[in-house]
Amino acid sequence: MRNISDVIEQYLKQVLKESQAEAIEIKRQDIAKRFECVPSQINYVINTRFTVEKGYLVESKRGGGGYIRIRRVILHEKQDLLTSLMDILQDHPRLTEQLVENILIRLFEEGMLSERDVRLLYHLLSDETLGLNADDRYLIRRQQLLALMKLLSYH
Amino acid sequence: MRNISDVIEQYLKQVLKESQAEAIEIKRQDIAKRFECVPSQINYVINTRFTVEKGYLVESKRGGGGYIRIRRVILHEKQDLLTSLMDILQDHPRLTEQLVENILIRLFEEGMLSERDVRLLYHLLSDETLGLNADDRYLIRRQQLLALMKLLSYH
DNA sequence: CACCCTCTGACCATCTTTGACTTTTGTTTT
DNA sequence: AAAACAAAAGTCAAAGATGGTCAGAGGGTG
User: Fold this and answer.
1) In the listed set A72, A90, A110, which residue is the last one of a domain according to the structure?
2) Coil/strand/helix, residue A62
């Protein structure tokens, strides 16, 4: 694996999967020690890899007996997923390529898009394809993603 | 071999062939060192020798743990159709909903898009979804349709 | 000689790693 | 109980590590 963040990401996902529970609790310090990195590296991993649009919820507590709890969000109804993703679209003024990718992959993981759909849409919504300036790209992405979700909610 | 670009090209193709995988990952810096050239030479080789038309797809990531991934792809047999459709896109300044529809239906008839694809794309490219003013809509449609055709040109 | 590739290097963009400083919470001491 | 201490986790900006772009110099060939 190329960098420590990816390794830690994989490790945490593995633990999450093996625990069979929908949430795991870790001690930031312990993980940092295990991978010989500074504690704030763990925050970096969490902030970039365990985001809401990717389907994770993270809670934590400081002080004695502190912890970080990572929860995989399980949505049983398609409509719930679409609603939560639409909320995310509203909450993020900057719909970056990265965010778009996360959302599309999430839709794939939840079985609402095929891999091909994801590739196609990702390319259509990429910086390279859209060109323009950043604000216009954000606008187009928002509108097209909302349109996509509206279509998906009909089936 | 007369120039370093040809040598690097051969080397990468060799590695690709020997790996038996459909993709290889390299570090730009490493290759540059191996052939004692500047790193941007690698970009030159990739941009001139590993293009989509030649059957290669290239992805990359910057920053720590960065890489360049070169993937071999199979070109679609209907290149002629795609080329002529791309010409049409270039020739028409006004990419109206109607024209978009015609193009999508053509791609459907040729078996390159499913009915679902057509519905989805038509919806994403509609006046209603795009909003904006007519000229911007024409621009977005052109760029996204061109991106679509580029994607369709390989499997 | 003109033209078209190649090659180079300065500057840019993006992602990761690190560490100093801050905030929150629990425990111990006065 | 209040104050002091200790034990987490959080924030943020700077440094580090890659890859990308582009314009101009260099070189080979018709």
Assistant:
1) A72
2) coil
Q: For chain B, list the strands marked E by DSSP.
A: 23-26, 56-61, 67-72
Is any Cβ of chain B less than 8 angstroms from the Cβ of A130?
yes
Are residue A102 and residue A149 in the same domain, yes or no?
yes
Q: Which residues of chain A does B29 touch, with a Cβ-Cβ cutoff of 8 Å?
A: none
Residues B103 and B139 both lie in one domain: yes
- For residue A4 the two structure tokens come to 């420590």
For residues B23 and B67, state if they share a domain. yes
The reply to whether A120 touches chain B by the CB within 8 Å rule is yes
Residue A104: which domain range? 78-153
| Residues A38 and A98 occupy one common structural domain | no
CATH number of the domain within which A38 lies: 3.30.56.130
Overall domain count for chain A: 2
Closest protein residue to C26 using CA and C1' atoms? Answer: A64
Q: What DSSP assignment string belongs to B69-118? A: EEEE-PBPS-HHHHHHHHHHHHH-S---HHHHHHHHHHHHHTTSS-HHHH
- pLDDT tens, per residue, chain A with 155 residues: 789 999 999 999 999 999 989 999 999 999 999 999 999 999 999 999 999 999 999 999 999 899 999 999 989 899 999 999 999 999 999 999 999 999 999 999 999 999 999 999 999 999 999 987 888 999 999 999 999 999 999 87
Query: Inter-chain contact B143–A129, Cβ cutoff 8 Å?
Result: yes
Please identify which residue in the block is written with the tokens 């970080």.
Answer: A68
Write out which nucleotides of chain D lie closer than 7 A to a protein Cβ.
6-13, 16-23, 28-29
B101 and B51 within one domain: no
Rounded Cα distance between B112 and B150, Å, is: 12
Instruction: Kindly identify which residue of chain A lies nearest to residue B145, measuring between CA atoms.
Output: A124
B124 Cβ under 8 Å from any chain A Cβ: yes
Q: Which of A12, A39, A72 marks a domain boundary?
A: A72
CB atoms within 10 A of CB B29: 11
CB A41 within 8 A of CB A28: no
